[in-house]
Amino acid sequence: xxxxxxxxxxxxxxxxxxxxxxxxxxxxxxxxxxxxxxxxxxxxxxxxxxxxxxxxxxxxxxxxxxxxxxxxxxxxxxxxxxxxxxxxxxxxxxxxxxxxxxxxxxxxxxxxxxxxxxxxxxxxxxxxxxxxxxxxxxxxxxxxxxxxxxxxxxxxxxxxxxxxxxxxxxxxxxxxxxxxxxxxxxxxxxxxxxxxxxxxxxxxxxxxxxxxxxxxxxxxxxxxxxxxxxxxxxxxxxxxxxxxxxxxxxxxxxxxxxxxxxxxxxxxxxxxxxxxxxxxxxxxxxxxxxxxxxxxxxxxxxxxxxxxxxxxxxxxxxxxxxxxxxxxxxxxxxxxxxxxxxxxxxxxxxxxxxxxxxxxxxxxxxxxxxxxxxxxxxxxxxxxxxxxxxxxxxxxxxxxxxxxxxxxxxxxxxxxxxxxxxxxxxxxxxxxxxxxxxxxxxxxxxxxxxxxxxxxxxxxxxxxxxxxxxxxxxxxxxxx
Length: 480
Ligand SMILES: Nc1ncnc2c1ncn2[C@@H]1O[C@H](COP(=O)(O)OP(=O)(O)O)[C@@H](O)[C@H]1O
Ligand code: SF4
Ligand SMILES: [Mg+2]
Known about the structure:
The protein is α/β, with parallel strands linked by helices.
């Protein structure tokens, strides 16, 4: 692992919640998974897909941690690592204080009862040749457990618990709708009364009308059974509904983690800000009005050779030289709110001396002032103690004698002055122009994050071979 990742490890406690109990249910430290890329008959290793590259976070008993990010950023891999369906390349996973990182299948068997996974695909994760009674009973069979009253009675109780008719015990998966199948998957995951449930995009394959029902079911079950969730989603509206805390992932790393309300009210990482700006606001008053959307250009870079420094620098409108060269550590910039950014939003600039942007703003964007001083940001600037310290690094727009707030303001004014140096990578505020003016930008406006999973199959070169459980393999692998 690279040096900056170690930096991040040092900052790992920052990712924990401020009032975390002394014993989190799940503690992940510097977790990594590099899938080797091999070539030739001898399967010589020629590279690695750095699917997960240094994650650190805690999950407290009873809470829901939401994990969001674009397709291919390593969310599913993270889910499979913490449930130990995949063997980590590095880092540690502790469950109830026990290090389970490299436990064998046999050692993991008792642990399987406590940690369960709900899979994304309600069609692929149920064996079509088994009745739903048989599917929900699989965990009992694999664990050699006979519940009180017998397996059949317990399975019927579970079916009822998830809102299915217990009389349908003998029916086959094809006789159920997508939402009902996902309920069957949930019943199977709950069979052994787990403590932690990792749900990988539990509703993204369902119709929107059904999504709310399944989300509400997960919510109710959490209250009823005292479950702890890690819920993975690319849909920020789902995540907002279910999560207590949210971790935002980009290219195998957590770039921001915070309480839900703090994250939505004042996102610090530019990537989070861009993701949030893509969430449609159902407000008729805003129809035809200005939109605050930030349009991220380009695809997520390849995890085989991620960009140097900050991995987001190739798409970030605030990127400066330090972003290209130095990976920002994940540090706590407000209570319980950690971010990995040299120039965060809504928080003091971590590298105020570095004012030369890699990509200067085009005129129209400069007019729209995409990173215009906002009250919260202005406050953060005021809080900054020292003046910009590296005179050599300053541009003409930032006189040496200026105080930090002035320097910041000047830096922000700079794009307007340098408007003619228009780059391609600058995100554009939809506010800057009506949609009709820039048809080329339109595809980007279509919720890049929210739809990424379905829209960019090419972003998944390996097609998730391990990620798509087939038949009862899902249960088998999670249970065995
Ligand atoms: N078994 C595998 N072998 C090789 N690469 C994989 C494997 N599983 C996932 N990947 C790659 O790891 C990256 C992260 O994948 P994944 O965790 O599925 O992302 P997400 O769930 O966020 O879409 C992707 O580039 C994907 O192609
Ligand atoms: S400002 Fe720099 S460190 Fe922050 S997200 Fe952008 S590129 Fe990364
Ligand atoms: Mg996934």
